[in-house]
Design a protein that fits this description.
Radius of gyration of chain A: 31 Å
Number of strands of chain A: 14
Strand content of chain A: 15-25%
Shape of chain A: elongated
Oligomer: heterodimer
Distance between the termini of chain B: 15 Å
Distance between the termini of chain A: 23 Å
Strand order of the largest sheet of chain A: 3-4-9-6-8-7
Radius of gyration of chain B: 17 Å
Helix content of chain A: 40-55%
Number of helices of chain B: 7
Number of domains of chain A: 2
Structural class of chain B: alpha/beta
Order of helices and strands of chain B: EEEHEEHEHHHEHEHEE
Shape of chain B: globular
Structural class of chain A: alpha+beta
Largest sheet of chain B: 6 strands, mixed
Largest interface: A-B, 25 and 31 residues
């Protein structure tokens, strides 16, 4: 019987072509939207994790409350001991300190006079500690635009845009003007080793990177850092595990009277990411729901028109001895076959477009040049395993729902009345 | 061949609601039809012929009275049992041939057997035999749109006969055929009636059909006016 049904679907183009086209387009859009949203959200999470938040982050409580002001006077102290303890208690993570600080960068000319000057955002990393994996994490090696990465103390790396703005080249000297952790003024010369492009407009604007030991000395932060970031060793953020780790860590300090006691926050609890991502998830859900309803309405209508066209066929089948319930059941089987064919075509096309958007992406760097949040400058879709089945939910369900609605009339009517209306 | 009563109608009435009132179409029909009969219900349009055929074919139910077809009380059948009765024991032939256009001649005839869940081999043998009865074996793989009117109606006969039904109900089967094709069709049906013992019940007002009938039941305004039997 299934072969008979499939023959009918394949041969009767008017029975199958429009529904398959509707489903294919619908499923394609669903798959593409899901792949794209997933890609964008994943990139936002990854980029935030890499550049700013870690998978978890430890700060002192007052630092956490004022972190936008980069209050290094409220930084963590005795971090070596703290990191040792973290490595013992949470061996599934890599812990690494970072210091964020701000200041003025001054580029002198041959006579020592200012050639160019501008405010900059400093980021101190454990550049020379291979175990920290900071170079890989920030993809610094592959992001080098000019020169090279720092390979010794006293070197500095600038974002390419910033270097161009300051008109400085690798090998030249640049001076940092800022304040120490205690508030004293500090001047420090660095040799520029090279430039990098972070791929985030906010970071590319005016960021410079130095080694954390240089920063600790310069900022009077011996054995201190503004933040300690934790990353899962598999480099994949797991919100549940992150929350458990944070809860366990914070439980030790919850009743501490030390006002500088450390506190751990997860990735999603920073930069309003949880709300944004939950909104993204909700948006995806609403999109899927609206899509199913809209497609069901279209397919209901298509089913009604197709049903009217097939009244004669239903009448013949009733007369031959097929029951109403069997006709209805076969309509649903036909709908499933059409739904599966449409979903397969739509999923293939959707994944194809997703793959294109994964490889090429949409460059939005010009649109977010002045953005104050960390987000990728190229929006990409991700081809993930769930894209292979996500389209089948609206594709198959809407076809079945639409057919069930249109076929209900046949099932509910008296056979004789139906037979009369079927104009046999 | 031993004759047995396969259709028994007792005080059959059928009303249809028209503008909120019951309109009587059949008014107390009493009939008894035996196996292997070749008979027709004859009457003008609106006399109730098709309604009577639909009730006998378990497509409709009587308002009152008893309708016993092949030992089944039509009134008490649910739609599944009624479908089963049609599927296994009753064949239908229509005025317009009503073949499924996307399927081949073979597949159109095979459909009833698919519902009976027969094996592929059983279906193939039965379909080819039925096509042989109507002389269409060489057209088995053609689509209905490649057939003439007469050939199409012969496919419809094969479709009705493939399940070896006890009863075939034919509603104006020659109405869309020219005289030559009509006679050919009627001869085929008569032959099947003789050879297989299938009862053929026609609804018609076509003179050509009347010439082949062994029994004519004249229906007028929902009442049996005359019931004439002829020796075949």
């Amino acid at each position: 019987m299934i072969r008979f049904i499939i023959k009918g679907i394949v041969r009767d183009k008017s029975k199958s072509l429009i529904p398959i086209a509707v489903i294919s387009v619908g499923v394609m859009v669903t798959v593409l939207m899901f792949g794209f949203l997933k890609g964008v959200f994943s990139d936002v999470i990854n980029q935030n994790a890499r550049l700013d938040t870690g998978h978890v982050k430890i700060m002192t409580k007052p630092y956490a409350e004022n972190k936008e002001q980069l209050p290094n006077d409220l930084a963590l102290l005795d971090i070596r001991e703290l990191i040792d303890s973290l490595n013992q208690n949470f061996p599934e993570m890599i812990w690494t300190p970072r210091i964020k600080f701000g200041g003025i960068m001054d580029v002198p000319d041959n006579f020592g006079n200012t050639k160019s000057q501008g405010p900059g955002m400093g980021l101190a990393l454990a550049l020379f500690d291979k175990d920290s994996k900071e170079l890989e994490r920030l993809k610094l090696s592959e992001s080098v635009e000019k020169g090279s990465l720092p390979n010794k103390k006293g070197q500095i790396l600038l974002s390419d845009n910033y270097a161009n703005k300051l008109n400085i080249n690798p090998g030249e000297t640049i001076t940092f003007f800022g304040s120490t952790m205690e508030g004293s003024m500090v001047f420090q010369n660095y040799e520029m080793s090279g430039t990098v492009r972070f791929g985030s407009p906010l970071m590319d604007k005016s960021t410079f990177i130095i080694d954390i030991l240089d920063a600790q000395i310069m900022l009077d932060m011996n054995n201190g850092s503004g933040e300690i970031l934790g990353y899962f060793k598999n480099n994949k953020y797991d919100d549940k595990r992150a929350l458990t780790i944070a809860k366990k860590f914070n439980s030790k300090y919850i009743s501490s009277s030390d006002e500088y006691a450390p506190v751990m926050v997860t990735l999603k609890d920073q930069n309003d990411l949880r709300a944004s991502l939950e909104m993204g998830d909700a948006f995806s859900g609403v999109f899927l729901f609206v899509f199913i309803i809209a497609m069901s309405l279209v397919l209901w209508n298509t089913g009604l028109i197709g049903g009217l066209r097939r009244y004669n066929e239903f009448g013949i089948r009733l007369a031959i001895g097929e029951s109403k319930s069997n006709i209805f059941r076969i309509l649903l089987v036909e709908a499933s076959v059409i739904g599966i064919i449409g979903s397969l075509i739509g999923t293939s096309l959707g994944i194809l477009f997703c793959y294109y958007l994964q490889e090429v992406g949409i460059d939005i760097s010009k649109d977010i040049a002045n953005s104050t949040i960390i987000m990728p400058s190229v929006m990409r879709a991700y081809v993930t395993s769930d894209l292979f089945y996500i389209g089948f939910i609206p594709g198959l369900f809407s076809m079945l729902f639409g057919t069930a609605l249109s076929g209900r009339g046949i099932y509910k009517r008296e056979t004789a009345r139906l037979f009369k209306e079927l104009e046999v | 061949m031993k004759k047995e009563t396969i259709i028994k109608l007792k005080n059959l009435t059928k009303n249809y609601p028209v503008a909120g009132r019951d309109f009587p179409v059949l008014k107390g029909i009493n009939l008894s039809i035996n196996s292997s009969e070749f008979l027709g219900i004859i009457g003008p349009s609106g006399s109730g012929k098709t309604t009577l055929l639909n009730i006998i074919g378990s497509l409709d139910k009587p308002t009152n009275g008893e309708v016993n077809v092949l030992n089944k009380e039509i009134k008490s059948l649910n739609h599944k049992d009624a479908a089963e009765l049609r599927n296994f024991h009753i064949g239908f032939i229509f005025q317009v041939f009503n073949l499924l256009p996307v399927y081949t001649v073979f597949e159109n005839v095979e459909f009833a057997l698919l519902l009976q869940k027969n094996t592929t081999k059983q279906r193939k043998n039965a379909v080819m035999e039925a096509l042989e009865w109507v002389g269409l074996t060489e057209h088995a793989n053609k689509k209905p749109d490649k057939l003439s009117g007469g050939e199409s109606q012969r496919v419809a006969i094969a479709r009705a006969m493939v399940k070896s039904p006890k009863l075939v109900l034919a509603d104006e089967p020659t109405a869309n055929l020219d005289a030559e094709n009509a006679h050919a069709i009627l001869k085929t049906m008569k032959k099947l009636n003789k050879e297989l013992g299938t009862t053929f019940l026609f609804s018609t007002h076509d003179e050509k059909v009347m010439g082949y009938l062994d029994r004519k039941i004249f229906l007028r305004d929902g009442i049996v006016e005359k019931d004439e039997k002829y020796k075949s």
